[in-house]
Amino acid sequence: DLFTHDVNNIFSVINSSAELISNYYKNPNSTIKVEEFPEMIQDQIIRGSKLVNDVRKLFELEEIKYSIQKIEILDVLNLAIAYVKKSYAEKIIDIQVHTPDEKLLILGNELLRDIFENILINAVKYNENLTVDIVIKISQDTREENEFIKMEFIDNGIGVADKKKKMIFKKNNREYKGSKGMGLGLSLVKKIVESYVGYIWVENKEPMDYSKGSNFIVLLPKAI
């Protein structure tokens, strides 16, 4: 399944990096540049830890009923931003948040942070620019007479092709965003959002060209 596929990929990268480091120390005159391999191993360990955490929470969402309460969005969002920047400290990440000058409360729970972290991590991982630019726009919206907080996560990454825009949220999806696997993160995000009776979808940053970046849009029920 997808979990096994991703775990095998993680172990393969770690094993290859370890072998190259070992070969270098056996032959110091080798032309192999080992400086980047410890960073690659660390990145895979972070990826593996996140993958295990996502699987656990997917299982819990199917087995456990989480309580819903009023939550202030910006407090949770700031924690998620800090976590992602710390996890990818070697990258230049510029995150701008545009928000109304008021307290923004939604109906959710402790899983809200997982929504933000997974979307932000994808924006960082699937990005080939020297600087990862992410703009988060927060506004209010109405759908079928219900009030929502609308959050747009706009990045300058490699984008999502139109034919894959719905598939990336499926649990057993084996499709790829660019050349790398999306993992279980977005299926977890969709499941959490739907448990809040919210909505999530992805659009192009620029309407006619998906390769310029993505805009992940999340509607979360506003707490009255």
UniProtKB/TrEMBL annotation:
<dbReference type="InterPro" id="IPR005467">
    <property type="entry name" value="His_kinase_dom"/>
</dbReference>
<keyword id="KW-0418">Kinase</keyword>
<dbReference type="GO" id="GO:0004673">
    <property type="term" value="F:protein histidine kinase activity"/>
</dbReference>
<keyword id="KW-0808">Transferase</keyword>
<protein>
    <recommendedName>
        <fullName>histidine kinase</fullName>
        <ecNumber>2.7.13.3</ecNumber>
    </recommendedName>
</protein>
<dbReference type="InterPro" id="IPR003594">
    <property type="entry name" value="HATPase_dom"/>
</dbReference>
<dbReference type="Pfam" id="PF02518">
    <property type="entry name" value="HATPase_c"/>
</dbReference>
<keyword id="KW-0902">Two-component regulatory system</keyword>
<dbReference type="InterPro" id="IPR004358">
    <property type="entry name" value="Sig_transdc_His_kin-like_C"/>
</dbReference>
<dbReference type="GO" id="GO:0000160">
    <property type="term" value="P:phosphorelay signal transduction system"/>
</dbReference>
<dbReference type="InterPro" id="IPR050736">
    <property type="entry name" value="Sensor_HK_Regulatory"/>
</dbReference>
<dbReference type="InterPro" id="IPR036890">
    <property type="entry name" value="HATPase_C_sf"/>
</dbReference>
<feature type="domain" description="Histidine kinase">
    <location>
        <begin position="2"/>
        <end position="224"/>
    </location>
</feature>
